[in-house]
Amino acid sequence: MEGMGLILKKIFDFIEEFFLKIMRKIGLGKLVDFYEQHREGMRYLIFGVLTTLVNIVTYYLCFYIAKIDNGISNVIAWIVSATFAYITNKFCVFDSKVNTKKALLYEIVSFYGCRLLTLAIDEGLMILTVDKLKLNALLMKIVVNVIVIILNFIFSKIIIFKKKDK
């Protein structure tokens, strides 16, 4: 996974720098400066949006196309998007460089543990809003994902990928 993660990071770094150069050339230098000052948060936002899209598309395919139960569709969407999020957060957002098996195990267990907590919140809100209140499933999936993204960033920043004092 480390090799593929580094390739992913290099590809993202290249694309990111390409777009930042274009933005500077078209007069958006202040926006580029802001992005660079808040790179970690901006990258989290980018990959949070992509993770949300992975989650919603997977949910849509399972629930609407494959006609799989709401709860099961939500869990499948979580598994796919959480794995995507771990890889992108580790290599592209927080630039995690764990150097022992114990540290890697902690990172993986804490990541999926925190994501299980937000899955429980996600699942509970989806059951409440879709199954009980009969609200639009896709709309509620989007709303619930906003809440989940915020919680996941907080957990990633303070628990999972926190920078160790040297």
Give the tally of β-strands: 0
Shape estimate: globular
Give the strand content: under 5%
Query: What is the overall number of helices?
Result: 6
Radius of gyration: 18 Å
- Uncertain runs are none
Distance between the termini: 26 Å
Characterization of this structure:
The protein is mostly helical. It has two domains: 1-37; 39-160, no CATH class. The protein is built from six helices and no strands. It has helices at residues 2-25, 29-37, 39-65, 70-93, 101-132, 137-160. Helix 3 (39-65) packs antiparallel against helix 4 and helix 3 runs antiparallel to helix 6. The longest helix has 32 residues, at 101-132. It is globular, with a radius of gyration of 18 Å. The model has no long low-confidence stretch (mean pLDDT 91).
Keywords:
mainly alpha; single chain; 6 helices; 166 residues
Topology, please?
Blueprint: H1 2-25, H2 29-37, H3 39-65, H4 70-93, H5 101-132, H6 137-160
